[in-house]
Amino acid sequence: MCGFAGVVARSHPLPREVAEIVAGMAATLVHRGPDAAGSWADPASGVAFGFRRLAILDLSPAGHQPMHSHDGRFTVVFNGEIYNHRDLRRELEGRGRFFRGTSDTEVVLEAACEWGPEEAIQRLWGMFALALWDAEARRLLLARDRLGKKPLYVAETGAGLLFASELKAIRAHPAFDPALDREAIASYVRYGYVPAPQCVYRHARKLRPGWLAIVDADGTIRERPYWTLGEAAARGIADALPLDVEEAASELDRLLRDAVARRMIADVPPCCRAEPTRRRWSRSCRPRAAARCGPSRSGSRNAPSTRPTRRGRWPLISAPITSSCA
Fold this sequence. Notes:
- By secondary structure, the chain is of the alpha+beta class.
- The chain has helices spanning about 15-25, 85-95, 105-115, 115-125, 165-170, 180-190, 230-240, 245-265, 275-285, 290-295, and strands at about 5-10, 35-40, 45-55, 65-70, 75-80, 125-135, 140-145, 155, 160-165, 205, 210-215, 220-225.
- It has two domains: about 5-230, 4-Layer Sandwich (Glutamine Phosphoribosylpyrophosphate, subunit 1, domain 1); about 270-325, no CATH class.
- Helices cover about 30% and strands about 20% of the residues.
- Helix 2 packs across helix 3 and helix 3 packs across helix 4.
- The longest helix has 19 residues, at about 245-265.
């Protein structure tokens, strides 16, 4: 988990204090990225990025953000993980692209160089939110993954367009009006969450899952979907695989194993990706089936209970857990 914030200002060149404000916006996201901080600004275009990093892939300085493409055209801040980044890297290397590091962020940049920003987004498999500045077109692209696992908020103010991984970063900008949206609050009371594009503030909104936004240097913003569940289902029905039940089960098993393997790619142990996470896992990875499941009739504390837990859920652990995470 990382976090970013940024501004597309209405006034050009970008006032010096705006870059400092954006750095302050990103500082509110330190819990999302405790490993490193970065910032970048293009004063002539009125654009500034701030970033907080949780290092998962490429722990070297080559993985730091904001990151620039090899030709300097694109600059990106990226939160998430691209599960097919190795496949894309091999394809891009076959097309003559070269890489300085091993991060998936650099793959996003070089994909934008090769295919253009919007087509590059279509090729990404993963959970992500990103902001990509195109210095040649003087245009910002904001994008969010297909199912909205990674958050991205935008707000239009008198000072320009603000965007961030969390609302607290947007609220840190002095031009933002934090008036509450009563309809969003009513939605939360009714549904237990706030449906996109609403958010708790009247003058901010979520970028919808599977959508991208294109922001020109003058602050004009155009939003559209690049993926919908309905279209994906229709393509699947139109191109259904001619498999019997056994073949379909085997293919599903293969796909699930591939999906899990892609999500396990990291340069740090899965349970040690941040200091708070390390502390939680060091406690939770200790043998705990006995405490959770209780003794059996035979007196063994390793046998699972046949009764629901305190929260009404059936136990998921059927044997003692051992781990090297502690």
